[in-house]
Amino acid sequence: MAKHRGRGIASINYPIGMNLGGDPSQALVHSNPSGKFTVSLSSIDLGQGMKSVTRQICAETLGVPVEDVYVDTADSDTGPHCMGSFASRGTHRVGNAVMAAAKEARGVMMEAAAEELEVNAADLETDGRGNIHVKGAPHRSISTKDVAIAAQFKQGKTISGRGIFLVPLSEVNPETGEMSPATCYAHACLVAEVEVDDETGEVAMVRMDSAYELGRALNPRLVEQQLVGGAWMGISHALFETPEPYYPDPTHGPRDFVEYLMPGPGDTCPHDIAVLERPAADGPFGAKGPGEMCANPVLPAVANAIFNAVGVRMDELPITPEKVLRAIKAQGGARPQARR
Amino acid sequence: MLELRKDIFADERDDNLKEIGKGTQRQDMLGHVTGTSTYFDDHKLQGMLHLKVLRSPHAHARLRRIDTMEAERSPGVRRIIRGADVPRNLNTLLSLINFGKDDEPSLAVDKVRYKGEPIVAIVADSPREAYEAMAKVRVDYEPLPAVFDVEEALKPGALVVNETYPKNTFIYHDVYDHQKLRFGDVERGFAEADHVLEQRYQMSPIEHAPTETNGSIAAPDTNGRYVVYTSTQALFFSLDTCAKILDVPSNTFHFIGGTVGGGFGGKVDTLTEPLAILGAMLTGRPVRYQLGREEEMQFGSPRGAERIYIKDGVMRDGRIVARKIRAYFDSGAYTRLSSYAVVKCVAHLPGPYTIPNVHGDVYCVFTNRTPATAMRGFGVTAMDFALECQMDKLAHLVGIDPMEFRILNAYRDGDMKAHRREAKNTALIECAQVAAEKAKWPLREEVKRMSSRKDGGGSRAAISPTPIEPAPQRAAVSQQRTTYDRAPPAPIHEPPPPAPPPPPRPQSPSHGATRFSSVFGTRRR
Questions:
Q1: What CATH code is carried by the domain that includes residue A122?
Q2: Which of A28, A103, B10, B219 is 20 to 30 Å from B102 by CA-CA measure?
């Protein structure tokens, strides 16, 4: 009886946005007279960071500091329509809508600044720190706050913008399945190392190394949060979770977190992640979306690592100690494969 | 630990940005870490009542009689809601995009089709009084045989789970009991292959297990409106679903949400809002309805189980020449979103690889279990598990390193995908190369030099001649009823038209709901 180590890999891609498109989102952006901007959405922040990502997109597009933007979301009386926070669509769809709204608002802001500075709006640029100045002449400058005051009380202009993003709906051919399911795809490859106890059937995670291609990491800290947490969910899906442990027999369903097992902190492992950025042509600053795909490569990588460790193929999820032990016994003992 | 590999694809990016690419602290971080962020359940309203539902203990049973007399007199009970009180007690979530037929009641009327299906809702002053009254509801059940296995459910003579779909499958394009993918000729591919490998994979259901269970609070507002605090993942999706079920204009509702304690797909189904609002309408008081942990785990709705068969033909040099897939999505007793997951899964085949011959048949099957719904990786997670286990076996079979095997078969810019669109902006090869580098997984020099941007297209952009089966007899709509099925016939669905030819390509994309209706030809609202 012994513990055996093995490594397995998986590579995947993932479509961004609701399958077949047809899933619009809208955004409204406006400034108050102090030059502070509000983004109005009906999108949901599930903890993934929707508010923060759209805030950064708005600030970058307007050319103002992120502190000058606040995202207000999920009120059906004030936020315009959004399909919802699912299908890895938040960053891509809502981000694009916010970008469009911010562009329109920026246009008005630059016109108002041009009027105050008595120049052509095309000759102005933002410094990202709350000022607008003539290109090549930083001393001919006005703060966004003064522009907002002038727009509101002197010029009678609304510094505001509307945005919508829609990928037109694709049809599906009944005979061939021909369709346009998505406009861009994220990618990943993950190497998992496990240790399998051939006496108990238990599988322990040793480490993971991965590379994720996400178009653009708009906020690398939020990306890290998604990828680390998502891989943890992947481990959980691979080795622990189901509300029907004897599926398709529906009995013995767990009712709480004592019976429904998930990995605790001691069951996770070091995870070394690389992020690649190949911008999507229609993504906001090229961004795709890491939200859903981050768990997917972990499940097969773990199954393949178990094969490498003890020589059994685990084709049914979750891969519980009982299943591993039965498979090892049926095989007549562990058969470690070539170490790699 | 996260490393940004700015060196790769650098020529495709402008990295000269001010706010984008920075690890700025979240706007809502302070509220989250100090426990002051507001969730739906932080709205304790004066005079708030509590709603609980009585759920079926049987997976399949006729409801002979529901007696609530004693329960109505139970202390603290303000109202008992039955199916007849729900203005439109039949809905399917995707009717909002005209996809599928209404097939699920808010409260069961004559039958229950899964263990845990709601039958009556009790609105009381406290949760305890609601539970006490629930124990006094008398339901006379006639238990019926149930079907739990997707392939059993498809056998001729299998009992009918959901009368709206008497063949126990969702109907695609009004004709087929599955969604097809046909690209090239797999049988010719298998004949040419050096090895053919066929395998079966199974994923059990998975629970979303959010920290905050599904819930909502609905309260009468001024001017005949209702304010609804909700944990939904899709504010307008839930609002429009409630407007349909309760048969009122959508501006009757003011939905407020936006901070959610974990969703992962399990908060799209609008499980609590319609009954909470109906409770508020019937009592004139605020009503709170939140699932308990056991309800969330067993009767909320999970990631649905999938059974997948993959048959591959591979050459000795490692090229995959044919891939044939048959998969069954276990939708449970009602459709919810599984019908859509099937189409997304078909679009995903055969994985991120260029294979000249691909054949897919994916089914959405009804069984007597909790309806499945969306979850992170919707339609793809289980298929990726099956595909990548299969890739490992194929590499082993032909004696090629599994990482190199994937890079060899990876799709590249300009290749034709099986859903007949050109691959663009691909990066699978680079991900594999970087992951290998990180894991110190040895790759040969020539494999390290491969690129998603090189050597794609050309012959890899071709669509091989594809045999199309003659259009079948259209799916029999004859009600496949069993002796135990005495329910009144489901609302009449007109017999589908004769198998149509592939729909004509529109000249330009049009918009709106009517456009949706032509996608699958299942307009029904």
A1: 3.30.365.10
A2: B219
